[in-house]
């Protein structure tokens, strides 16, 4: 990595810098001419110099030069103009120069901006590229938040500086020198005064700014440390809550913020002191010009035009000079930032870039043995984890690695998966060191899974297929506009040193998963999901999801058949009372009062409970049917019963799980509200109080809450109001509320609700699990299981997969490894979060599943249960970092050794 920022910029933008410097040099000509014109205008047409007689004229735009070897050459003899005409002509020329100078500045600044953005893109990519090539051990020493902050924020000024690195000193220095030279030409002493002030500014100000640089460096370091600390708090929030250390963290953050405040306050004080001195020096010069220049003009040693031109020229001198001083400060500041980036990212040894080169061609199978020779591994502290282990694992062999925690078994598996690098010794395949093999081989032909999991923010499917996305397999189809846009982006990427790989391509290697394309990919995925016992979890996610019928057409078409099949199945099994179907003419006792009243679903987020309750039509319906007072009275009784029963219970009491209409925190609120409304009628309550009480009745379900509040009369009244609601519903509401219909699919309802078309009876034990099991069988029977599974695979797993449970994450991690159909599978206690029975079952499934259809990959498994080793060809027993015993199950189980102790 280049140590000097200036050299780095010059190396990557040399041709562009030379071009823009040439443009800057060309811009100095009209810039100088714009200083001389005011003098000509004042002395000539305005004061009359050269226009002494009536009707006098002067030559305008006479262009002639004395050229070497050629002599005098006249290009244009000029125009004869009178005093007024000359004034207008010179003024127009001045205006033209102003426009030309502005266009030069516009082009230079735009070019600088584009150059800077390209360089920022280049350096960010190179830094991320280096992160991808860091040795594994380095990630244990750095905080991810600090690395991200440096790449995102700290290199940002480098992009802006790139365009200014060589152009600004040339442009600003050229403008300052041009203005200063023009002043000296007009009057030597005034020029010396300006030069003296400029010299003081150029010497004093940069020296004072050294303190600013030091404070800026401290501010940057403390801000980066704060970012890393905040990242630690977010990642360790469970540990903080579990140990009651939130106030310790508050104290730590307050201390860091205090340090940052102190640094920034000092920075501001020093910054504005420097600014004050700089501005003072800049304002002293006009004072001297007015005083001394005015005196010289009075003495006749300086004409008025020259004085005006000098003052006009000096007006343009402080600007470039100040910007030049600012540039020098930015240069030093950015160099400091770059030096810190260099120190953070200049890590040795980096993974060779050739190891991560793109490989689009299929990779051949690994048919040679995995040979471990004198392998030694240590942790960060130098403690030996594995000590001189040698072993050979054949391509089709299944090997169980057994040993207590800390025995070295886990570290040995990590070395086989290239998660750690050996201190000494080698791991080779066909004589080639494992670390020298391209990742296109190891990442496709060797699969590694451990208990540590990580998933990127996205769908479950994108994370499951992540191990198949090695290279773009097919090019996307673009229309003409998209093709031009992609071509432009590719050209810009190439100029910035970025790869031109198209993210919109299809990156999934379907053949590696045993599929021919996206059409039959689910058929290849499903056996893997079944093997790790996660299919039911994904099915449950699908049942809770809404369905886009434009994509999943078959489900929308078959939903009515599914409902009928479910009813028939429940009737056949004597479970027809387990689901109470929706009936427009009857009250559904297993649904809430609100669901019964609405008899449909709202299209969220366009329509919510609050918006519906505030709608004039809904409020009018309540008044006309009298439901307002009925549900208000019902809500009061619910509140009284809930407060009476639960006000003495602690907030974490399990009884609160049964309260769908009120939380433990709501109890005191409603307790106070009941006291306030005790002797007041419905009409006397405020709209907010009525809403708070009626809301309770909307969530009430008689079989679940059992307060005995729903009478036959009230249920009939709700059904009648429902009919009236849908009969006269206005168009704006009809678009946002989908009424339940037994003959069609309801897109805004979940898949579970669509298939049930009713509610599960609360009185039935394990009713929900039984229904889910039956639904799975029905989906299979109607050949819809894959379609439903694909809906579950669209579930967003959240940041780091945190919307999934730990058990689900470990299962998914194992499935991702299995889907690659590698030659070597290395499993490092991958299911530690699961109970032993489920672990055993999944292990059996995988061993049997991977060795079907003539495909027999090598399996290396660090087992938590030594008894499972019976399924493997060979057992490696680790103890205290060494290979204590090796052999097959019958040999080691009969031998009075350590393995027999683990079995007992």
Q: Indicate the radius of gyration in whole angstroms.
A: 40 Å
Low-confidence stretches: none
Q: What structural category characterises the helix and strand content?
A: alpha+beta
CATH class of the largest domain: Mainly Alpha
- Percent of residues in helical segments? 55-70%
In what range is the share of β-strand residues?
5-15%
Looking at the overall shape, the CATH architecture of the largest domain is Up-down Bundle
**Average pLDDT figure:** 83
Number of helices: 33
How many domains in all? 5
Quantity of strands, as a count: 20
Taking strands numbered 1, 2, ... along the chain, how are they ordered across the largest sheet? 10-17-18-7-19-20
The major pleated sheet works out as: 6 strands, mixed
Estimate the global geometry from the Cα principal axes.
Answer: extended
From the 3D structure, determine the CATH topology of the largest domain: ABC transporter transmembrane region fold
Distance from N terminus to C terminus (CA atoms, Å) equals: 56 Å
How would you characterize the overall build of this protein?
With 904 residues, this protein is of the alpha+beta class. 57% of the residues lie in helices and 11% in strands. The protein has 33 helices and 20 strands. The strands form 7 sheets. It has a 6-stranded mixed sheet, with helices on both faces. It has a 4-stranded antiparallel sheet with strand order 6-5-8-9, covered by helices on one side. Strand 2 and strand 3 form a beta hairpin. Helix 2 crosses helix 4, helix 5 runs antiparallel to helix 9 and helix 8 packs antiparallel against helix 9. The relative contact order is 0.09. One of its GO terms (cellular component) is plasma membrane.
């Amino acid at each position: 990595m280049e140590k000097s920022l200036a050299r780095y910029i010059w190396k990557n933008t040399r041709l562009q810098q030379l071009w823009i410097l040439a443009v800057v040099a060309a811009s100095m000509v009209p810039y100088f001419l714009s200083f001389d014109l005011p003098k000509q205008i004042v002395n000539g047409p305005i004061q009359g110099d050269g226009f002494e007689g009536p009707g006098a004229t002067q030559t305008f735009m006479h262009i002639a030069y004395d050229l070497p070897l050629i002599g005098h050459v006249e290009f244009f003899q000029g125009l004869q103009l009178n005093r007024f005409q000359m004034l207008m002509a010179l003024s127009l020329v001045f205006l033209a120069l102003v426009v030309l100078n502005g266009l030069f500045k516009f082009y230079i600044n735009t070019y600088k901006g584009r150059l800077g953005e390209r360089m920022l893109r280049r350096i960010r990519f190179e830094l991320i590229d280096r992160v991808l090539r860091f040795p594994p051990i380095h990630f244990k020493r750095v905080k991810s938040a600090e690395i991200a902050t440096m790449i995102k924020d700290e290199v940002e000024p480098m992009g802006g500086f790139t365009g200014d690195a060589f152009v600004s000193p040339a442009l600003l220095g050229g403008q300052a020198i041009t203005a200063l030279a023009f002043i000296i030409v007009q009057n030597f002493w005034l020029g010396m005064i300006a030069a003296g002030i400029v010299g003081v500014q150029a010497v004093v100000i940069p020296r004072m700014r050294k303190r600013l640089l030091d404070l800026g460096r401290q501010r940057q370091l403390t801000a980066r440390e704060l970012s890393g600390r905040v990242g630690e708090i977010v990642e360790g929030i469970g540990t903080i809550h579990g140990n009651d250390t939130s106030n310790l963290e508050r104290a730590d953050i307050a201390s860091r913020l205090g340090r940052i405040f102190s640094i920034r306050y000092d920075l501001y004080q020093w910054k504005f002191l420097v600014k004050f001195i700089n501005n003072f020096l800049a304002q002293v010069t006009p004072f001297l010009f007015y005083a001394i220049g005015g005196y010289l003009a009075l003495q006749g040693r300086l004409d008025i035009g020259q004085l005006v031109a000098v003052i006009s020229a000096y007006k343009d001198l402080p600007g470039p000079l100040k910007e030049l001083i600012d540039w020098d400060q930015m240069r030093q500041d950015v160099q400091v930032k770059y030096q810190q980036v260099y120190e953070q990212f200049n890590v040795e040894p980096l993974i060779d870039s050739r190891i991560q080169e793109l490989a689009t061609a299929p990779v051949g199978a690994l048919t040679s043995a995995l040979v471990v020779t004198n392998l030694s591994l240590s942790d960060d502290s130098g403690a030996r984890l594995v000590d001189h282990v040698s072993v050979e694992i054949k391509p089709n062999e299944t090997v169980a690695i057994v040993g207590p925690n800390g025995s070295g078994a886990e570290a040995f598996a990590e070395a086989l998966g290239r998660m750690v690098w050996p201190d000494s010794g080698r791991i080779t395949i066909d004589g080639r060191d494992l670390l020298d093999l391209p990742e296109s081989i190891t990442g496709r032909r060797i699969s590694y899974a451990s208990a540590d999991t990580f998933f990127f923010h996205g769908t479950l499917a994108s994370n499951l297929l992540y191990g198949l996305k090695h290279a773009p397999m097919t090019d996307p189809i673009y229309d003409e506009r998209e093709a031009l846009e992609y071509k432009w982006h590719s050209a810009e990427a190439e100029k910035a040193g970025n790869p031109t790989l198209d993210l919109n391509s299809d990156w999934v290697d379907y053949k590696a998963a045993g599929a021919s394309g996206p059409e039959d990919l689910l058929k290849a995925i499903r056996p893997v999901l079944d093997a790790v016992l996660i299919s039911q979890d994904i099915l449950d996610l699908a049942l809770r999801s809404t369905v886009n019928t434009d994509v999943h057409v078959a489900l929308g078409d078959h939903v009515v058949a599914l409902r009928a099949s479910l009813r028939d199945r429940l009737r056949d099994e004597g479970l027809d009372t387990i689901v109470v179907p929706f009936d427009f003419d009857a009250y559904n006792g297993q649904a809430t009062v609100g669901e019964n009243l609405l008899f449909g679903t709202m299209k969220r987020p366009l329509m919510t409970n609050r918006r519906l309750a505030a709608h004039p039509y809904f409020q009018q319906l309540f008044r006309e049917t009298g439901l307002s007072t009925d549900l208000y009275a019902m809500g009061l009784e619910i509140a009284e019963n809930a407060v009476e029963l639960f006000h003495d219970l602690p907030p974490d009491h399990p009884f609160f799980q049964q309260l769908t209409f009120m939380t433990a925190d709501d109890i005191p609120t409603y307790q106070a509200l009941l006291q306030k409304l005790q002797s007041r009628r419905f009409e006397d309550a405020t709209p907010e109080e009525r809403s708070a009480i009626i809301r309770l009745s909307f969530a009430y379900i008689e079989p679940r809450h059992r307060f005995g509040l729903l009478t036959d009369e009230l249920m009939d009244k709700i059904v009648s109001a429902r009919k009236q609601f849908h009969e006269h519903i206005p168009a704006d509401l009809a678009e946002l509320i989908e009424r339940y219909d037994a003959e069609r699919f309801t897109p805004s309802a979940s898949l579970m609700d669509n298939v049930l078309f009713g509610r599960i009876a609360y009185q039935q034990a394990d009713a929900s699990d039984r229904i889910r099991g039956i639904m799975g069988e029905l989906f299979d029977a109607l050949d819809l299981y894959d379609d439903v599974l694909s809906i579950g695979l669209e579930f967003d797993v959240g940041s780091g997969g945190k919307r999934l449970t730990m058990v689900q994450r470990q299962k998914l991690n194992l499935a991702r490894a299995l889907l690659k159909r590698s030659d070597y599978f290395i499993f490092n206690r991958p299911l530690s979060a699961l109970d032993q029975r489920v672990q055993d079952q999944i292990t059996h499934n995988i061993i049997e599943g991977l060795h079907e259809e003539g495909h027999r990959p090598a399996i290396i498994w660090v087992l938590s249960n030594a008894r499972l080793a019976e399924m493997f060809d060979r057992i490696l027993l680790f103890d205290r970092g060494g290979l204590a015993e090796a052999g097959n199950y019958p040999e080691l189980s009969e031998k009075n050794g350590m393995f027999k102790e683990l079995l007992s």
